[in-house]
Amino acid sequence: MQARSVGEEALRAGRVAAFVVAGGQGTRLGYNGPKGPQGHARAAAPLFQVFAEKILAAAAATENRCTGSS
Fold it and tell me: Which tens digits make up the pLDDT trace of 16-29?
């Protein structure tokens, strides 16, 4: 678990950046478009939302804040 503690320390220090990209088409999922906006099998939310919530949770757990631009 040394890698996890190193990562958490980097988050606390504000030395981490994260971004989410579409990652391909959802054809295998039966969706005609990028799979990011499509729902996930284990979550009712779209994949982009699931990823964003995980990033925000990691920031909150390390008492950091997420900033960004669009």
Answer: 888 777 667 777 76
CB atoms within 10 A of CB 47: 20
User: Measured in whole angstroms, how far is the alpha carbon of residue 34 from the centre of its chain?
Assistant: 16
d(CA 24, CA 31): 11
What are the tens digits of pLDDT across the range 4-14? Answer: 889 888 888 88
pTM, 2 dp: 0.62
Tokens of 12: 């606390």
Q: In sequence order, which residues have a C-beta less than 8 Å from that of residue 39 and are 6 or more positions away?
A: 45, 46, 47
Q: What is the dihedral of CA 4, 39, 25, 52, to 10 degrees?
A: -40
CA angle 14, 19, 21 (to 5 degrees): 170
Amino acid code (one letter) for 20: V
